[in-house]
Design a protein that fits this description.
alpha/beta, Rossmann fold, six-stranded mixed beta sheet, four-stranded antiparallel beta sheet, 6 helices, 30% helix, globular
């Protein structure tokens, strides 16, 4: 199980963006996909998130086709497009997570505990009562990623999570991603450059000219 794509294609206004993507991200894997702006990274995530339909080929999450079983797919994935305004800015960080937990189907009795755990894990506990509008860009970024973790998804799709963060924020998010992979989730993260994520990834991917280049497993320093 995990994320799978075979021959995936997508064009916009006649311009090919994805030109036959083949991809496998197995359960328990942190995969980092590097590519320049406009390479198609976000489009690929949006297809897996059922936001964009592919023109051809297929994409699956845990064996469920994204085009034919969208509702089942959405129950299994957590998504974070960190450069988008995907929070309610007049609500507090805690109120946002509580609201989204209910829409994710988290049982009412479990909402408070799950929200508290995510706020603590992403070091947002102290600012949780503040309105989103009053948070820094980095704090909002971590809050969006916390939202993606609601409901214990089996797949995580995170678009450029480290952009503009300081060293402490980067370390916090990397720890979150690694923990989810170690717990069995399929984690696919995009980045303009692998840089800080390179040594943490189980697999490095490169998206070029609409296709994913051969897999590369990063070398890990021996203990």
């Amino acid at each position: 199980m995990g994320l799978l794509a075979r021959g995936l294609t997508r064009s916009f206004a006649g311009r090919p963006v994805l030109s036959g993507v083949d991809l496998d991200v197995e359960a328990g894997t942190l995969a980092v996909m590097e590519g320049a702006n406009g390479a198609g990274k976000t489009t690929l995530l949006r297809i897996f998130a059922t936001v964009v339909r592919p023109d051809g080929g297929r994409a699956e999450v845990d064996g469920h086709d994204v085009a034919r079983a969208g509702a089942r797919v959405r129950k299994r994935i957590g998504v974070a497009f960190v450069n988008e305004r995907s929070l309610f800015w007049r609500l507090s960080g805690q109120e946002n997570l509580q609201l989204f937990a209910r829409t994710r189907g988290v049982p009412r009795r479990a909402v408070a505990g799950q929200v508290a755990a995510l706020l603590d894990e992403l070091e947002l506990g102290q600012i949780a009562p503040r309105r989103v509008a009053d948070l820094s860009a980095g704090q909002r970024q971590r809050l969006i990623i916390a939202r993606a973790g609601l409901g214990d998804p089996t797949g995580l799709l995170i678009d450029e999570p480290l952009r503009g963060l300081d060293d402490a924020g980067i370390a916090t998010i990397i720890a979150f991603l690694r923990r989810r992979a170690s717990e069995g989730a399929s984690v696919l993260v995009t980045a303009p450059k692998a840089d800080e994520l390179e040594q943490e990834a189980d697999v490095l991917l490169r998206l070029r000219d609409g296709v994913v280049l051969p897999w590369h497993e990063p070398e890990r320093a021996s203990a």
